[in-house]
């Protein structure tokens, strides 16, 4: 049975949940709004709002696309126009705000900003696709100041992840045409490899990590790759075009298998399939399943 309901506005941002709070990031009229809702009964605990300036692209939806990020006592939200805000989890007060895409002259892309940032230590790392080597940016979570910028590459819609390589924490970001592994302390590029295709394409699925193994996938004839990121350069363990080709959806890993939506929503050829992690062998597939979230 439904315990409670809360109306919400535009956008594709999933909710974040922590400490009995549900954080809903959405657009209402000319505002991007962050609602803090009690998970027990749906009461609104506080609300923060910011001017919404995104005017739309290929998709008519004008709302935010990035999931709120909760770290300690702060929430970080990234708007569809590329504005980043740090908000107190206690009362919704604004700690700092930055117009990241405007500051770094980043293009809107097909759908605006849509890559969820990640917190590593005291740094908030985001893929913004700015010019002059500001593809990635690291911001101090305490004061909102830039600590480093790196990579001359457009942003994608995939979110950065962390992995441990040779005892060191690394951040991996799938960008527009390149995937990079950087040192989160200073933004130095440790590894990189080509992934993506020019033209009307997007990289959107967030990579999956197991030790030093990294799995990436995209549609538009790109397919998927499993790489060993401890090798220099990164070594392909396997690569296929006829297994997972995810246009938007991040596959789900469970045990020895991945479950994925492969194919394109706009072409009507999306299928559900199960693929073995170790070698990419398809265990089963259900054609014409359609697009869904997993």
Question: What this model shows, in words?
Answer:
By secondary structure, the protein is mostly beta strands. The chain is built from 1 helix and 24 strands. The longest helix is centred in the middle third of the chain and has 4 residues, at 100-103. It is globular and about 50 Å long. The model has no long low-confidence stretch (mean pLDDT 95).
Question: Main traits of this protein?
Answer:
mainly beta, 4-stranded antiparallel β-sheet, 24 strands, 294 residues
Task: Annotate the secondary structure layout.
Layout: E1 16-18, E2 21-28, E3 31-38, E4 44-51, E5 69-71, E6 74-78, E7 83-88, E8 94-99, H1 100-103, E9 118-120, E10 123-130, E11 134-140, E12 146-150, E13 161-165, E14 168-174, E15 178-182, E16 189-194, E17 208-210, E18 213-218, E19 223-228, E20 235-240, E21 252-254, E22 257-262, E23 271-276, E24 282-286
Antiparallel strand pairs: 1-2, 2-3, 3-4, 5-6, 6-7, 7-8, 9-10, 10-11, 11-12, 13-14, 14-15, 15-16, 17-18, 18-19, 19-20, 21-22, 22-23, 23-24
Brief description of this entry?
By secondary structure, the protein is mostly beta strands. 1% of the residues lie in helices and 46% in strands.
């Amino acid at each position: 049975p439904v315990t409670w309901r809360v109306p919400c506005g535009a956008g594709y941002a999933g909710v974040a949940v922590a400490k009995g709070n549900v954080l809903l990031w959405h657009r209402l009229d000319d505002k991007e709004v962050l609602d803090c809702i009690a998970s027990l009964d749906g009461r609104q605990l506080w609300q923060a709002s910011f001017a919404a300036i995104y005017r739309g692209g290929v998709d008519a939806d004008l709302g935010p696309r990035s999931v709120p990020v909760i770290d300690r006592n702060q929430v970080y939200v990234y708007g569809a126009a590329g504005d980043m805000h740090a908000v107190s989890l206690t009362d919704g007060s604004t700690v700092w705000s930055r117009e990241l895409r405007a500051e770094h002259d980043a293009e809107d892309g097909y759908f605006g900003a849509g890559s969820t940032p990640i917190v590593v230590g005291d740094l908030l790392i985001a893929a913004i696709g700015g010019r002059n080597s500001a593809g990635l940016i690291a911001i101090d979570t305490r004061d909102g100041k830039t600590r480093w910028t790196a990579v001359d590459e457009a942003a994608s819609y995939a979110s950065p992840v962390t992995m441990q390589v040779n005892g060191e924490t690394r951040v991996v970001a799938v960008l527009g045409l390149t995937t990079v592994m950087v040192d989160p302390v200073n933004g130095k590029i440790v590894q990189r490899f080509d992934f993506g295709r020019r033209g009307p394409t997007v990289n959107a699925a967030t990579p999956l990590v197991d030790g030093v193994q990294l799995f990436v996938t995209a549609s538009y004839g790109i397919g998927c790759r499993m790489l060993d990121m401890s090798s220099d350069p990164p070594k392909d363990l396997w690569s296929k075009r006829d297994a997972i080709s995810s246009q938007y959806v991040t596959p789900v890993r469970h045990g020895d298998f991945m479950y994925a939506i492969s194919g394109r929503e706009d072409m009507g050829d999306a299928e559900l399939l199960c693929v073995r992690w170790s070698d990419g062998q398809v265990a089963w597939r259900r054609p014409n399943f359609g697009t869904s979230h997993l």
